[in-house]
Write a structure and sequence with these properties.
By secondary structure, the chain is an alpha/beta fold. It contains 12 helices and 11 strands. The strands form 2 sheets. A 7-stranded mixed beta sheet has the order 1-7-6-5-4-2-3, sandwiched between helices. The chain is globular. Its EC number is 2.6.1.9.
């Protein structure tokens, strides 16, 4: 069974929009896209008066090398959120199909599904916030077209073992597309799922430059998947998803010097994660610090509301995650610089 048989028939048959850049790449005198002939004031050589390439070749090449995939297995867009939305629109028929998620988890999977009028099947994480692969597979019905797994999970920080990912991939063959969201993979101990792409054509992996690569403001994310899935999603991808300044920022961040700097900062974050976990667990009023493979910690407090207000009054904004199932007493604290983390501990210590 081809993975495309899981997709909507009308998307498979869709004739995509053909942009000016797609129809006539290259050339010296560009008069085919109704662009301005002049660069904007302060352009600094970015040529922002010209539409960008839909999939900039140099950026695709660099990202494919970074993630260890072939160029035809990669789609780059505006953060992981765009890829999530494209997947739901391509695979889920409104009012008929569904996605499966494991709460508490990243909320955009369900938001994109509901916008598409697709149902959301929930299989809660285990008590220790690990994925129960058996329960997930048992809950998959013919209506479920996408199974999202956040690895490491947001907002808990829990990792997902490679054995669990592969068990899900095997069990979902011919049934649904497995989408592994690896937004925080650079901070995790386990290898990513991209190495499994050539073995499972119904596997897709989400990656982003927003976290470890410090480009949240540039909105660059990737989908890694079978070449047929990438080609399908390109049919419904907007003509020019990537602004030229964002592409330039990504190329700089992914240069040899940029990669070296990113890896140094990742090491700092992982060291701070260990130290912050130990320090927080020693503070009165802290019930627990959940194990994390990400760049944040989910922390349980005796009086979570008071702690949130104390931090806010000190100018420190953390994420209130009490609305998530199983986290009614928790805050999510992003790991900052060593100085910022020390400030958090000082404020928490003052209220002890």
């Amino acid at each position: 069974m081809s993975v495309l048989e899981l997709a909507r028939a009308e998307i498979r048959a869709l004739v995509p929009y053909s942009s000016a850049r797609m129809e006539a790449a290259g050339g010296q005198l560009l008069l085919n896209a109704n662009e301005s002939a002049w660069a904007p004031f302060g352009d600094a050589g970015l040529d922002c008066h010209r539409y960008p390439d839909p999939q900039p070749a140099a950026l695709v090449e660099r990202l494919a090398a970074l993630y260890g995939v072939r160029r035809e297995q990669l789609l780059v867009g505006r953060g992981s959120d765009e890829a999530i939305d494209l997947l739901v629109r391509a695979f889920c028929r409104a009012g008929k199909d569904a996605i499966l998620v494991q709460p508490p988890t990243f909320g955009m999977y369900a938001v994109c599904a509901r916008v598409q009028d697709a149902a959301v099947v929930e299989v809660p994480l285990s008590v220790d916030f690990t994925v129960d692969a058996g329960a997930v597979l048992a809950a998959v019905t013919p209506a479920v077209k996408l199974v999202f797994v956040c690895a490491p999970n947001n907002p808990t920080g829990a990792g997902v073992s490679p054995e669990t990912i592969e068990r899900l991939a095997r069990g979902l063959a011919g049934r649904a597309l497995l989408v592994v969201d690896e937004a925080y993979a650079e901070f995790a101990e386990d290898a990513g799922a991209a190495a499994l792409l050539d073995r499972y054509e119904h596997l897709a992996v989400l990656r982003t430059l927003s976290k470890a690569w410090a480009l949240a403001g540039a909105r660059i994310g990737c989908l890694l998947a079978h070449a047929d899935v990438i080609a399908l999603l390109r049919r419904i991808l907007p003509p020019y998803p990537l602004p030229r300044p964002c592409v330039a920022a990504a190329m700089e961040a992914l240069s040899p010097q940029g990669q070296a700097a990113a890896h140094e900062r990742i090491e700092v974050v992982c060291t701070e994660r260990t130290q912050m976990t130990s320090a927080l667990r020693r503070l009165p009023g802290v019930r627990a610090v959940l194990p994390s493979q990400a760049n944040f910690l989910a922390v349980r407090f005796d009086d979570v509301g008071a702690v949130y207000r104390r931090l806010f009054d000190a100018g420190i904004v953390v994420r209130d995650v009490r609305r998530y199932p199983g986290l009614g007493d928790a805050l999510r604290i992003t790991l900052g610089t060593p100085e910022e983390n020390a400030r958090v501990l000082a404020v928490l210590g003052e209220g002890a």
